[in-house]
Amino acid sequence: MGVDMAECIFCKIISGQIPSAIVHSDDNFFVFLDINPANKGHTLVIPKKHYETFNDMPAEEVWHLFETVQKVSKAVEKGLRADGYNILISNKRPAGQEVDHIHVHVIPRYKGDEMAVRLGWNYKKYDEGEAKAVADRIKKNL
Ligand code: AMP
Ligand code: ZN
User: Fold this and answer.
1) Terminal C-alpha separation, the chain
2) Does the beta carbon of 34 lie inside 6 Å of ligand 1?
3) Predicted confidence band at 5 (pLDDT cuts at 50, 70, 90)?
4) Ligand nearest to the CA of 103
5) 130: which DSSP letter?
6) pTM for this structure?
7) Candidate list 42, 50, 103, 105, residue with the active-site label
8) Distance, CA of 104 to CA of 88 (rounded, Å)
């Protein structure tokens, strides 16, 4: 982690140094198409301010980010006649984050689209009493 801002590919996209298919740009957010779409219309929503992960964003800005994500999601769904969509944020390498500038993926989905989901998971099973212990560990850190 920790590519500095001057080298950040998404900061370069925001400044126009690297071209992108722009969907929307305002004072705080930038919205553009992912260059390797999981489905056509796979869109990225990013804050213009460089934050590495979701953890680093002030709550106030998260609120505004998700307002934009919701607007964009509706537009993706309607504009591309999708049957649904996924919203995804990958945080840090083990979770699949490749670009260290927080971004929200909005991916249109179609009935039977067989989109390759990189984040498929195998269900794990909790032992007796373990679910409560796990929930408590999260709760203690809220
Ligand atoms: P993540 O794996 O969540 O960090 O996602 C990074 C995303 O950025 C990937 O889906 C890439 O396809 C996308 N990406 C990388 N470079 C560019 C670029 N120049 N323009 C548009 N999307 C990009
Ligand atoms: Zn950046």
Assistant:
1) 25
2) yes
3) confident
4) 1
5) H
6) 0.89
7) 103
8) 6
Q: Which residues pair with 105 in a beta bridge?
A: 44, 88
Q: pLDDT (tens digit, 9 = 90+) per residue, 82-96?
A: 999 999 999 999 999
Closest CA to 90 of 69, 62, 118: 118
Q: Is the dihedral of CA 85, 87, 90, 94 positive or negative?
A: negative
Residue 96 CB–ligand 1 contact under 6 Å: yes
Give CA–CA dist 30/85, Å, rounded.
19
Nearest to 48 by CA among 61, 30, 64, 32: 30
- The whole-number pLDDT of residue 142 equals 84
Q: How far apart are CA 52 and CA 91, in angstroms?
A: 9
